Amino acid sequence: MRTAGLPARRAVLTAGLAAAAGALSGCSAAPVRKVTTAAPQPRPATPQAAYARLMEGNKRWVSGKLDHPDRDPERRELVAEAQDPFGVVLACIDSRVAPELIFDTGLGDLYVLRTGGQAIGPVVTGSVEYGPLTGGTPLVVVLGHQRCGAVEAAYTSLKAGKPLPGNLEALAKAMVPAYELTAKNPGADPVDTMTHHQIEVTAEGLRTNADLGPLVEKGALGVVGAYYSLDTGRVEVLTGAPA
Ligand SMILES: [Zn+2]
User: Fold this and answer.
1) Distance 225 CA to ligand 1 centre (A)
2) Ligand 1 centre and the CA of 31: distance in Å?
3) pLDDT at residue number 40
4) Counted domains in the chain
């Protein structure tokens, strides 16, 4: 079984961020207990390396030749006191779009956020930023998918001008920019068109915001927009692949 190796915490960027990180229980940057593992793989430290690691994992998922790395008690012990994930994945809540499976990763490899239609708001954006800002996590992936029920519900609601019930309406509101782009040119499958826009708009917003933008500009962070096919298992990169 492959291992991603010891999580070597990076120096936090500022004292303020360090304090913020320490204040969040379960996310502490305490020293790592050393555990001997066979042939540890170095943690990807650059956007390019993190991207390559994820796409290699997705190839294994598509082919069915999975490694199932770092999912044993030894790994649990290794990362129990500190974590150092190499990527952030913002995906949909859809039960068929589980990032750790799709990218064949292990415990402690990824920060994972999941919302309907990978819609964002301040709480979600702050959670995406946590890794890159406090620990130097080098990659963010915004992952939408085929036949997304959340995007379909938002599209139908916004097109008809009929709000979704209860708090579901917040999802539709968060997807208005993607809907407006879709309304201009819906194509043969408006829901799929809107899904693509939702991925691209969300990734672009994160890539250029006041907190993550400077990291992207200096090459320390990549923000990728990607589309997952339920039919094939393949992740297709739409925007932001690290050069
Ligand atoms: Zn979905």
Assistant:
1) 15
2) 38
3) 58
4) 1
